[in-house]
Write a structure and sequence with these properties.
Elements (H helix, E strand, L loop, with lengths): L1 H31 L19
The structure holds zinc ion.
Length: about 50
C-alpha cells in the first residue's frame, strides 16, 4: 500500500511539474508574441506611436 502511495505521489509531482512547465511556456509565448494593432492592423507593440 505504501508503494502505491509513493508512486501516486511521484506521479502527481511529475504532473504538477509538467503543468508548471507548460504554463510557463504559454506565458513566455504570449509575452513574446506581438499583438495585432486594432488601429492600423499591423503587428507591433500596444501603445505604439501612430504618426
Ligand atoms: Zn498600429
Amino acid at each position: 500500500m505504501t508503494v502505491i502511495y509513493a508512486l501516486l505521489a511521484l506521479a502527481l509531482g511529475m504532473a504538477a511539474g509538467l503543468v508548471v512547465i507548460v504554463i510557463d511556456e504559454f506565458r513566455w509565448e504570449a509575452r513574446n508574441r506581438l499583438p495585432r494593432c486594432t488601429t492600423c492592423g499591423e503587428l507591433h507593440r500596444r501603445h505604439a506611436a501612430h504618426r
